[in-house]
Backbone:
């Protein structure tokens, strides 16, 4: 096996060459490659599920958490969802070449901002093998080349999915180096990617705090970061009780191991039915950790401590606090939110608008479960991740988030005086 630095250098050079070739590829060819890849994912189901079985067996031996196991697991239904997401990306409008805006100067020069690919993208991720397909589909559709580095816990699954995606490229006559998977679990390969300035144009990490921190600390190329999903749901005093209960339970318990899962529930002190809310969560199998006011609602509630308000549980655990109005809810969110997704449940539209304007999060919702924080649910197809930063892209990062722009100036012979 080559040294990680040499390996990443060679992969970066191949990716750069593939990116150059992609500039001459038609939208129809890119779409056809993804349709073919989706077909190979389906016809390769037996091999992919067997690879995932081996990964799951190894992960259990390593005693990975239930949240990690849930993210890692693929069954027939999830594989079909992966293939369908790739097909959905194939059917989306091509962002490359779109004119963002156009203006004409007094001297007759026509100015346009036109979408172009970012270039060579490095994606470093953990656990979720579906990211292999999602990232490959989105980067190819947006005209980028990609170097994928998945976690060691998903080595077999990632390779099987990667093989299906490359088969689609080859079938459509596209450069197979447009999608590459780092073939080693050596952590030094991550370091080599982070310092591959000139070969990799942007790094996108998708994983836990330790991964994201390492990427941000060591990267010598731009980073599009996704931090914790400490998502809040605030139940306003005028919330409809049926909506509030359904949203709170779904936001926490539909899938507890995803970044859009609710981790903190805030209940207005004037909301008339707080007891049924917490009891419904407990009855659904959730551990409730509450402040003093919440502890009085049910003897099964345990006391929350300071760190609970800053914890992404990714498990059937939720912290619950009683707050004095929307201002106190917003104050709590400002102090503890990771700026991912925050929700208000209320029938008071003025209160909802105040919350929407003041909650400084990538996604703000009114009367909906935070579990909708997903590129597919936003109609974007698959997603690379949800950016909680402020630069370049925010919220679900899909095709548009994987492009930048260039200025195109059209003249008729003008010279500057």
Residues:
């Amino acid at each position: 096996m080559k040294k990680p630095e040499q390996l990443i250098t060679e992969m970066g050079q191949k990716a750069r060459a593939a990116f150059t070739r992609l500039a001459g590829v038609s939208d129809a060819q890119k779409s056809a490659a993804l349709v073919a890849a989706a077909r190979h994912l389906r016809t390769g189901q037996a091999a992919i599920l067997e690879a995932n079985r081996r990964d799951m067996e190894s992960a259990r031996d390593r005693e990975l958490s239930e949240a990690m196991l849930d993210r890692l697991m693929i069954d027939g239904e999830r594989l079909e969802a992966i293939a369908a997401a790739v097909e959905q990306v194939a059917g989306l409008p091509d962002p490359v070449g779109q004119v963002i805006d156009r203006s004409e100067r007094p001297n007759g020069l026509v100015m346009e901002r036109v979408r172009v690919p970012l270039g060579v993208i490095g994606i470093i991720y953990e656990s979720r093998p579906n990211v292999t397909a999602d990232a490959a589909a989105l980067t190819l559709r947006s005209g980028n080349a990609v170097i994928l580095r998945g976690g060691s816990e998903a080595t077999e699954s990632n390779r099987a999915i990667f093989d299906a995606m490359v088969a689609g490229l080859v079938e459509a006559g596209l450069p197979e180096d447009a999608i590459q998977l780092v073939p080693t679990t050596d952590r030094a390969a991550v370091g080599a990617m982070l310092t591959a300035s000139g070969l990799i144009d942007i790094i996108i990490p998708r994983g836990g705090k330790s991964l994201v921190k390492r990427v941000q600390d060591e990267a010598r190329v731009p980073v599009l970061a996704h931090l914790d999903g400490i998502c809040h749901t605030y139940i306003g005093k005028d919330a409809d009780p049926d909506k509030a209960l359904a949203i709170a339970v779904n936001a926490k318990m539909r899938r507890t191991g995803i970044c859009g899962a609710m981790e903190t529930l805030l209940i207005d002190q004037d909301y008339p039915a707080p007891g049924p809310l917490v009891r419904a969560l407990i009855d659904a199998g959730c551990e409730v950790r509450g402040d003093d006011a919440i502890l009085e609602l049910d003897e099964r509630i345990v006391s929350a401590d300071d760190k609970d308000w800053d914890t992404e549980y990714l498990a059937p655990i939720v912290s619950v606090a009683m707050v004095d109005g929307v201002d106190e809810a917003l104050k709590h969110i400002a102090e503890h939110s990771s700026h991912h997704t925050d929700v208000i449940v209320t029938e008071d539209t003025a209160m909802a608008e105040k919350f929407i304007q003041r909650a400084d999060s990538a996604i703000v919702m009114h009367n909906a479960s935070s579990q909708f924080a997903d590129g597919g649910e936003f109609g974007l197809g698959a997603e690379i991740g949800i950016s909680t930063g402020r630069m370049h892209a925010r919220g679900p990062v899909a095709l548009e988030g994987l492009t930048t722009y260039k200025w195109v100036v059209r003249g008729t012979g003008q010279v500057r005086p």
